[in-house]
Design the sequence.
């Protein structure tokens, strides 16, 4: 159904032209949006009118008209005032909203088709036939983005991004669940990861400015035709999950840039436990204090360079050497050595992954 924001903007625009107040009700008589406070009686009138056979009606100086979807009433539009002018503008407003309902229905049907495509719910022959019905080109390079909204404002976000990135701009936007919005973007020849990432950044900036919300976004690899969209969607979903676990400081996650995190994410949990036991033995990686973790992270970030790491940690070089020696005595790993550094890096990432699995009760 149309969002209340869209409906309210329509009523406000018509009032600005016609100078009459409009009230939109659902068929139960609940007001959805209005340009002024309606008389308390109008809700009851709207409910009773929705159940009647009439398409329009006038009661005590209030005009009522039905807005239908496939012959069934979905809204009741009301306006106060007498005379042909009020009735004419009310009918024009109803006609406008009726067209919006029909257009939204067509878009919903197309969105539902694409949703089933990405969820791999259709056979290839069904994809081909329905793509012709909905005038969706089959062999066109496309990319699937997943947008994760951090609270329940996904409807507000949809209203903000659809006019900019929706079908009129060469893309399709729809919800797959309560928190995730899918954006299927038609690609232009020659576009690459730099462009994909730039588009993702622009979407996040739009959400931040227009909605005042924080979000994160992931994307898969390009799909050459419709049937490949399910692969791109799965890749985008995996990128979102891996990003949450290993790179939670990032707002944009690309499947092609996940690195070791993608490999660890696909390891069996039993194998992960064996590896942790081999590296840490009786030590619990969660017992490492904050100072040690900070030292390890900075040492890795500075490519095992003691001078650079000590400078960035604001400590003397000998202090860093002491910390590394202490770590070697505890774990038996000298992370000044590349092989031991790689072992510890992997072990910490595997431990992070296991913590995520246990806290979220997955697998």
Sequence:
């Amino acid at each position: 159904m149309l969002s209340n924001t869209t409906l309210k903007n329509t009523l406000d625009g018509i009032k600005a032209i016609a100078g009459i107040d409009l009230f939109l009700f659902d068929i139960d008589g609940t007001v959805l949006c209005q340009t002024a406070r309606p008389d308390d009686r109008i809700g009851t009138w709207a409910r009773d009118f929705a159940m009647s056979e009439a398409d329009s009606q006038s009661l005590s100086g209030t005009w009522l008209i039905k807005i239908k979807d496939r012959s069934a009433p979905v809204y009741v539009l009301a306006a106060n005032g007498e005379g042909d002018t009020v009735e004419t503008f009310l009918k024009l407003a109803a006609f406008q909203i009726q067209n919006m309902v029909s257009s939204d229905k067509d878009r919903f049907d197309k969105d539902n088709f694409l949703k089933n495509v990405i969820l791999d719910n259709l056979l290839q022959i069904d994809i081909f036939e329905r793509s012709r019905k909905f005038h969706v080109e089959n062999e066109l390079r496309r990319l699937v983005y997943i947008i994760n909204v951090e609270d329940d404002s996904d409807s507000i976000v949809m209203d903000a991004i659809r006019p900019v990135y929706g079908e009129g701009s060469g893309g399709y936007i729809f919800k797959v669940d309560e928190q995730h919005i899918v954006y299927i973007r038609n690609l232009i020849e020659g576009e690459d990861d730099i462009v994909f990432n730039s588009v993702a950044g622009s979407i996040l900036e739009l959400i931040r400015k227009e909605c005042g919300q924080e979000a994160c976004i992931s994307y898969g690899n390009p799909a050459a035709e419709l049937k490949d969209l399910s692969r791109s969607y799965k890749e985008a979903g995996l990128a979102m999950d891996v990003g949450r676990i290993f790179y939670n400081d990032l707002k944009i996650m690309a499947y092609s840039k996940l690195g070791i995190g993608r490999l660890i994410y696909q390891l069996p949990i039993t194998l992960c436990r064996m590896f942790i036991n081999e590296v840490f033995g009786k030590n619990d990686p969660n017992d490492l204090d904050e100072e040690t973790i900070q030292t390890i992270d900075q040492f890795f970030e500075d490519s095992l360079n003691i001078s650079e790491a000590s400078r960035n940690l604001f400590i003397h070089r000998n202090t860093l050497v002491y910390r590394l020696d202490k770590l070697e005595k505890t774990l038996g790993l000298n992370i000044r050595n590349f092989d031991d550094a790689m072992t510890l890096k992997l072990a910490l990432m595997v431990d992070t992954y296991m913590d995520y699995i246990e806290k979220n009760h997955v697998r």
